[in-house]
Amino acid sequence: MNDRKKMTILYIIVSFILIVLLITAAIIINNSTSATPTINVENNRITKIVKSDTLSEIVYKASNEIYKGPGITPDKIAYITIDDGPSKYTNEILDTLNKNNVNATFFMINGNMKAHPEEVKRIIKDGNTAGFHSVSHDIHKLYQSPEATVEEFDTCNDTLYKISGETSKIIRLPYGSKPYAPEESYNKLIDNGYLIWDWNLDTEDWRSTKDQIISNILYYGRDKKEIVILMHEKEQSAKALNNIILILKERGYKILPVTNHDNPKNFWERNLK
Ligand SMILES: [Zn+2]
Description:
By secondary structure, the chain is α/β, with parallel strands linked by helices. It has two domains: about 5-35; about 40-255, Glycoside hydrolase/deacetylase (TIM Barrel, Alpha-Beta Barrel), CATH 3.20.20.370. It is about 50% helix and about 10% strand. The strands form two sheets. Strands 1, 2, 3, 6, 7 and 8 form a six-stranded parallel sheet that branches. A two-stranded parallel sheet has the order 4-5. Helix 2 (about 35-50) runs antiparallel to helix 11 (about 235-250), helix 3 (about 55-65) packs parallel to helix 10 and helix 8 crosses helix 9. The protein binds zinc ion. Zinc ion (ZN) binds near residues 83, 84, 137 and 174.
């Protein structure tokens, strides 16, 4: 074999090795850019849930692009909290909670409890937590003095007792405990045994469509171990609730009502992440 032939054979072998290396590299790159099977399965399930009725492109995208969390892990807790009721939507909300075998926390306004006593009774009978959300829902009245603050919640408690025979110390301040509540009012509530709850996931449901609410849950809830979800008794919120519950379950959350034994989570305590 002359040198020229040797060079040709060497050239062929080197070319072959290079081609094999290139193909292998292409396969590796292709695999690493597509999602892992676990995330695909999870995404497919969530997509199926949110697409089970009419749903905007936004939500579909959100479920595919945003959810990159790990698989189901224990001790992920979600508290569904619903403000401003009871209302004409309470029964629909309760039906949805029952259908999914979960409970929520209702932060109720005094006048609405009086207007909807049957709903108040049903909230409790179905295993949900009754909480209060003031009499006036007006920060100027509520924070006139620390005494006025406590009095509004004591009034709520009297109303609940008259309707149901139950009492509660679990409350949510209108518009949250910060920045509106003065320190004196906050401390006075604590001194009187009230357990003040804020939230770390605002669904912005009062100004959103059903699909936007679901999208907000998908987006803002993506990295949280514990979620306190803020909702209101609105038509679109009641309609979104079923999908919200399914998504939370799919993501491995245990859905629980707030209880007297839970350490209250609020903006003063800075224990909401
Ligand atoms: Zn409110």
